[in-house]
Amino acid sequence: MPVMATQDLIVLLYGEFSPLHVSNTDDNAENICILAAKKCKIGPLARHLFGLFHPPTKTWLSPYDLLKDQDNTDSTGYEFRLRFKLPNVGKLARIDIAAFNYYFHQVVINCVLGRIFRGKIHETLKVKEKALGLAVTDMWRVKLEKNLSTQAIENDYKNYLPQEVMNQFKFFFLSRFLRKAMGDALSKLEENKQELLFVKEQYIQTILDLKPNYGCEEYCAFVDEEGQSIPVNLQMDPFHNTQPGLRRQMGNKKAPWTHVCSIEELCFISMGKDRTVEISRRNGVPQYFRFQKLGEMRSFVSLLDGYYRLTEKWTFNLCKELPTPSLRHLRSIKCHGPVDKEFAYNKLMSKSQNQCGVFILRENCDYSSFILDVILAGYEFPTSIHVIKLNTGEYRLENEDAAFASIQDLLNYYIRQNLLSTCIPPSEYDKSCLLLCKSEKSDYTSSSKDTLTIPLCINMKNLFCSGKDLDFQGKFTSVRQSTWKKGNQNISCCLKTLKSQFKHSHLHDFLNMINSCIYCHNEAIVSMYGMVINPPMIVMEYLPLGPLDSYLTSHCAELKEVDLVEAATYLAKALWYLEEENKCHGNIRCSNVLVSAHESNSFRVKLCDFGMPSCDITQIHWIPPECYETLHTSCHSLPADVWAFGTTIWEIFSYGLLPLPTTTPEEAKQLYLNGIRLPQPKHCDQDIYKLMIDCWVKDPDSRKKPQAIMRDINQTLYEAYNSRRTHEYAIVTAPPHQVELDSISISTVSSNTTDNETLPDTPHTSQRKFQDFFANFSLNRQSQIENNDSAKTHNENGNADRRGLQQSPSDISLLMFSQDQEWLIEMSQLEKKEKLGQGFYGEVYKASLTRWSGLGEEIVAIKQLKSGIGSGLQDLLREISIMKTLHHKNIVEIKGVVEEPEMLLVMEFVPLSSLLVYLRTYKSHLSEKQLIKFAMDIAEGMEYLGIKRIVHRDLAARNILVETPNSVKISDFGLAQLMGPKDYYRYAPETLRHWKFTHKSDVWSYGITLWEMFTFGEEPVLDGCQDDKLLHELESGKRLSCPPSASIDIYSYVMKRCWDADPKLRPTFTELVAEFTNMQL
């Protein structure tokens, strides 16, 4: 296979195919494999068996890897090879004959080039004989395929033997003997007239008989044992007779092989920055292997991931860091892979309940089209309709003219036409033809089913109840501490029974609950020892640390962020276990989780039993929108459990606070329906919060699956905190009771910066996260305990209230201003005058300030909290801490702070009201020149904030103050505005979806502010757009129309650029300043 001299990356193809030249190295390895498969006529199903192999390094690219990121893109290029073995040779031929023929050529060429038989194996007589047989078999194959004469084939015999074997016949008389022997064998084959497919199968099978581990990848890694780094050989053979799956060999080649796990026993894989791989297994004991090179690690992980997808769950990636690109696209449109018609029809018939319009979308076998299988009225069986991809990139149904830009647009159109209704999405548990590598013998059964036993019936006489009700009482049940006398043992336990008033009315539900939980056996679920028959009771383990919600509030000063992450991993483990057992919990809440252990380097929790089905509007935070019409359905839905899991994790990272404590359940319900989600808790990692958001997706089919939740949480735990716990874990962010000055003064700096806005690595960088969703959306968040002393006092007094942990204002102000006496102003220096305006938390008054030492009187504005709104203090303090660091002509200046008898912010007085009021009042007198000057002032002020690394997050005309008819100033850094329904329109799509605030989201808001200015204060509302559809409309490209008074330049080159869907493509404020400077010339 000669290497061609070209600047393109070369992918070598086996057989008679010319090399594939790749000029776009920005592409990922999966797309290159698809191009190679198309060229070799390999179908969409079998192409998943193939990969890109780099011979010099003996590594493979994962489907996710980009070619441009590889260090080994040298002239030798890559080889397109079959990577994943099938249970038997004939299966590949039945699936895809082109793939089988390609694999045959791969085997033949590797055999001839000496890649299969190496070392002393060639010296054995058996191998020499078999090698002759292989050569003759291949000669016969070539004779049939190319219709050559026997003589021509015999003359070329050297090209069919492995080079190592040829070296054994280097003498002339031996070569004459060899040629005659091969000629005789060829004649016999011709007499038997074997079929070509049979000949190829026999060739491959002979290779596998001689070299059983052919195609099994091996890697060298290291393991840490007793403080030493020991080399280990790793081999992956899913069909090994005694050790199927992954096995390892310690030290040297003479050491015995030991089994690590089968494919079925894999749970997920995490990759560390030190090139260490954590393999999580179903037995709960992880394995760790460290690799010398990054490419080797990724190659190894992609091997395990590929086999898992092709054996167990085709739609799931074991490793979060190496997703399969095509899977993400298929998930987004709820499309199955290239499953066969029989599978699609059977699934559709079993899931559709014979409802018209229910459909399945699946990939076709031609790479460019899809198939819709749909239930139609009047038809006994589903109907298949082809979805054709046009040369323009658009899609249409066969025999239809209407074309659409995307598959999703096409489906939405026919759903609106009532021709389609519900899409049945792919499931992780589909048993289809996509599981190419699954052996018929392989059928993993969970350990719980292996150990299934009849529940233990406990005699009431052996239970001694203390009579004390425990904290975690239910609506229908009571729980009491007890002692179970089991032989010579006294075991502490709990007894759960129906309350007396429900013993008859809810007995059936209670027995059903017992039946559901009594067989659950998992380390993350409270153990059930047994049951009492009369009266019906559950006997379960006693965990004295109590419910997690109250434990979080009373021990917040002791809990580290990593403790919260570990608690989340245990809860995720319970969720996944229940899914595997096909059980819905229906009551996942922080109050229904018990603390199992809290030690210096461990924080373990357990999920309680299922409880009695009971849902009402007060539980709205744990109930997904699809269950709002019938709340009790959330008790029997796995997607509802996932939603509740997300809310429970939010509770954990909020240290036991209840969600939205100041909103009514109905108000919260409306917020969730409008797409609003709970904010990122203050001490929550960004990846964990993204996981919560994935659990709160409105579409239940698109929510994160439990195994993926387990994988992602553990990746965070492993990567950030070193889950092996060989030492005290490092704290990435300060615990909640440690507050330092910088963490207050920079709390508005977003951690969600774009690539070119990365914050420097300071001790507080990890704390700069979006915390204040409540402040932006009038959801009044209670203050956390912010310093060690107040936390201790709170704990000692025992006044923990999970609805909010209050802090003394003087404690915080003392921290901020103890060394800044020049900022302090006495109340006696101020004379309050008329009210100027108000926000949700604060009121602004005009006042006169008398300076000491005869400095005279000055007119100022003072902001104070409304009475009874103590939770706005944090926002006022934030505004103070920001403003005292700012000095710019277009930003309102702070004069000082009053501490006693109440906290007041003293600011410069800006006489001409807010820009919003000014626009509406003087709209008939404002010129374009004035508006451009206002725009310039705002841009310069925002540019300054960017230099100071401050994100405003609430830029709007109402928060701009007019100083003179030609000058404005930016104000209101408290972010405590009451947000009405129309305020959603001011925020960028990434803010609405992920609560991501950056300088680029400020640019979006700046564009909205410009629109307000050139419409003279109109509400920025999209025409014909409902509030709950806003995000969809924005992401679809819909924008505010051009104001009549705005020029094309201002609308097209400024506003619309500020509203670019890609934040990176939006202009910076420096660019905007330059733009308006040019307009003023």
TrEMBL record:
Please indicate if the UniProt record lists DNA-binding as a keyword: no
According to the entry, every stretch annotated as the Protein kinase domain falls at 465-717, 830-1081
Mind telling me which CDD domains this protein's record contains? PTKc
**UniProt binding sites for ATP:** K863
Task: Note the superkingdom of the native organism.
Answer: Eukaryota
Q: Where is the composition biased (Basic and acidic residues)?
A: 789-804
Q: What is its main location?
A: membrane
Region Disordered: what ranges?
786-806
BP GO annotations? animal organ morphogenesis; cell development; cell surface receptor signaling pathway via JAK-STAT; cytokine-mediated signaling pathway; intracellular signal transduction; neuron differentiation; positive regulation of cellular component organization; regulation of developmental process
| Residue ranges of domain FERM in the record | 6-315
- EC number from the UniProt entry: 2.7.10.2
InterPro entries registered for this protein in UniProt: Band_41_domain (IPR019749), FERM_domain (IPR000299), FERM_F1 (IPR041155), JAK (IPR051286), Kinase-like_dom_sf (IPR011009), Prot_kinase_dom (IPR000719), Protein_kinase_ATP_BS (IPR017441), Ser-Thr/Tyr_kinase_cat_dom (IPR001245)
Q: Which GO-annotated molecular functions does the record name?
A: ATP binding; cytokine receptor binding; non-membrane spanning protein tyrosine kinase activity; transmembrane receptor protein tyrosine kinase activity
Designated name of the protein: non-specific protein-tyrosine kinase
Q: Which organism is it from?
A: Strigamia maritima (European centipede)
